[in-house]
Amino acid sequence: xxxxxxxxxxxxxxxxxxxxxxxxxxxxxxxxxxxxxxxxxxxxxxxxxxxxxxxxxxxxxxxxxxxxxxxxxxxxxxxxxxxxxxxxxxxxxxxxxxxxxxxxxxxxxxxxxxxxxxxxxxxxxxxxxxxxxx
Amino acid sequence: xxxxxxxxxxxxxxxxxxxxxxxxxxxxxxxxxxxxxxxxxxxxxxxxxxxxxxxxxxxxxxxxxxxxxxxxxxxxxxxxxxxxxxxxxxxxxxxxxxxxxxxxxxxxxxxxxxxxxxxxxxxxxxxxxxxxxxxxxxxxxxxxxx
Lengths: 134, 146
Prior knowledge:
The complex is a heterodimer. By secondary structure, chain A is of the alpha+beta class. Chain A contains 6 helices and 5 strands, in the order E-H-H-H-E-E-E-E-H-H-H. In chain A, strand 2 and strand 3 form a beta hairpin. The model of chain A has no long low-confidence stretch (mean pLDDT about 95). Chain B contains 3 helices and 7 strands. In chain B, helix 2 (about 45-50) links the parallel strand 1 (about 25-35) and strand 2 (about 55-65). Classes of the chains: A alpha+beta, B alpha+beta.
């Protein structure tokens, strides 16, 4: 089980690229966007001990043209939270409920927020990449 | 996010919920909470006996390009609304009722003026104990000239 957000704009940009140089520029744009979105998601992430934030992953997909950011269940359940004092075993994929909310607390979908807040910047990155001289 | 914070978009949504007619009979009183609900929002006997119940949690508001809500007007504002009930079907009924109130309907939001919002569903899920179910909705408003 995962809770993730994805950038699928990179592959779309690649399909519009006409030259190798433009494709390389799209790859660089995806890398820049991954870092910026990941950093933003980290900044927006709820923090208590910082364990959840430390488990956030970001990876390239589609040969580096897209990316995915989020959390995996296996990075939580059965792991030891050494950032807590005392250290404790994590028994729930609790970040899911932080993001989705519970019947007592509204959720904080910081992943979707980070993706959405960077929408215009992402589009600009890819526009510039496709304007790279061939 | 505080349940006492003054958030104009929450106020507009809350007002629509409060006065909305033809509401689902299982909608509790209060009908909604801002940010968080007290522990007795759904009495234990309701959950134990599976009596129908439901309420709304008004959640995260983001403004573009303002980012997380800070009281400043942005180009558009999006609020997350959690429709909680005892069954997935009741949660869906809450969502559809709310959508009928707000989707493509004009509302007045302080700092935005009169706006027409769009609502879309982002997915059902359940509580950790599996005794409560929600449909999550995103309600986005844009200034009329935006």
